[in-house]
Amino acid sequence: MIEGFTALYIFMLAAFTGYEVISRVPVILHTPLMSGSNFIHGIVLVGAMVALGHAETGLEMLIGFIGVILAAGNAVGGYVATERMLEMFNKSNRGGAAK
Amino acid sequence: MSGFIEIVYFVAAVVFILGLKKMSSPVTARDGIVWAGVAMVAATLVTFFSPSVYGHGFFNLLLIVVAIAVGSYIAYKSAKSVEMTDMPQMIAIYNGMGGGAAAAIAAVELVRFAGGHDIGGGTVQLLAVLGALIGAVSFSGSAIAFAKLQGLMNKTLRLPSHQALNIALFVITVLFGAILAFSGEVGGFTVFLFFLCALALGVMVTLPIGGADMPVVISLFNALTGLAVAFEGYLLGNAAMIIAGTVVGSSGTLLTQLMAKAMNRPLSNILFSSFGSAGGAGEETVEGTMKEIEASDAAVMMAYADKVIIVPGYGMAVAQAQHKLAELVQLLEDRGVTVKFAIHPVAGRMPGHMNVLLAEAGIDYDKIYDLEEINPEFPTADVALVIGANDVVNPVARTNPDSPIYGMPILDADKAKNCIVIKRGKGSGFSGIENHLFYAENTRMLYGDAQKAISELIAGVKQL
Known about the structure:
Radius of gyration of chain B: 25 Å
Shape of chain B: elongated
Number of helices of chain A: 4
Structural class of chain B: alpha/beta
Strand content of chain B: 5-15%
Number of helices of chain B: 18
Oligomer: heterodimer
Distance between the termini of chain B: 74 Å
Strand order of the largest sheet of chain B: 3-2-1-4-5-6
Radius of gyration of chain A: 19 Å
Largest interface: A-B, 86 and 123 residues
């Protein structure tokens, strides 16, 4: 378990990290980047698995089940969408270099 | 085993940050997402061996596997098959799913709590409820954003005294949340009402927001989902969720600000006022008439020009016209015409949306210019070809302080010697504001679907 101030420190450092990582990004990458960060919060899948894992009653299982479906959708959909977009940048890179 | 799981989570968190860093440069972006993907798979796999998953019976394990299979299958199929032009709403829906998942985690824990389990109490409980609220709002709000962009819901809906209703709903939701967060014992029904209110709040907040502002809103929901995931991470004591969620929360907030700045509208404006509520602005009359042009004449104008600047907008995306456009550009360049692309930061439905589409069609980076770079060049251009763009070239943003889009930086297509506008019909654009450019002396309208119109232009140029 992560307690009190330790958690606060983690939160603060991670917040600064996120801010710094993005701060100099060209406009053309805004959409792929949004999609990419969308994928990264797909880590919620891990939490949804734990929630469903220790669910006991039928209701808990039902909610947990929906949670895991949603989370898996977030992760997989986010990945495929981002990958497809970035694929195109690669293609046009190669095309540009070949000319 | 538990130590090993922690190590994997730790490494995954680091790789997520590095992946995000790589994604912020075009050259390394592809590696970034692949790295993050590997980390995600590793984190998911080790979670199967965590005590709260592995030790709790075969049935739960089976449910997890089935749920992952179902969710992955649906998302994979939809993400693979969707057209590039529809990507913005897909991002919205995947993001909403993440928010929903965060809310579901909190719901399971709160139901357990209502059933007498200890879920941690104190701060943890408060954060869980906060995450649930944010996640649920992001879930239902993203669903509305999806419906709007997908065209399932065209009107911006505004109830009488919508603002007051929203505030009331917000207060009620927070009250229920406070009961859940601070009392030692809660009933299942309170949990139910809390989630109902939170979901309704997401719908109510998103309904009055116009489609033109949707990119900013989706980005905001993305940041919110990140935050919700981080809070649920506290609840479950999962550092990977805390770090990844927080990083997305803060980077998403920054991204949202960048977008709002590109539209020159403060975020509060976007969230709490909508186009059309400004009143009065629509009453002024526009001088002049819209003058039509035949595709063959337009082709002549462009073929004999020295410099053509193309302004693509959502109309190009809808018509899937980027490939035809690339063909036209090739033809013009073969004739010695200089062709440049002017991309408004919010052209289409998302920043960078046009760049993605043009990249898909194989158009070189170096022909594509940002607003600041290209605006001084419009006066020297012989033809500005506007393809399905509207608000981003509307000169009232410069001239009329009463207009809802006044102050938004626009592309100065009206300053080109001639302006050709490809447009589907005579109606006004997404925001419903009359575009003075269409009535200007040097503007000619080429009506029709962008793909068809560009095909005709190609045929016209080939005949010369």
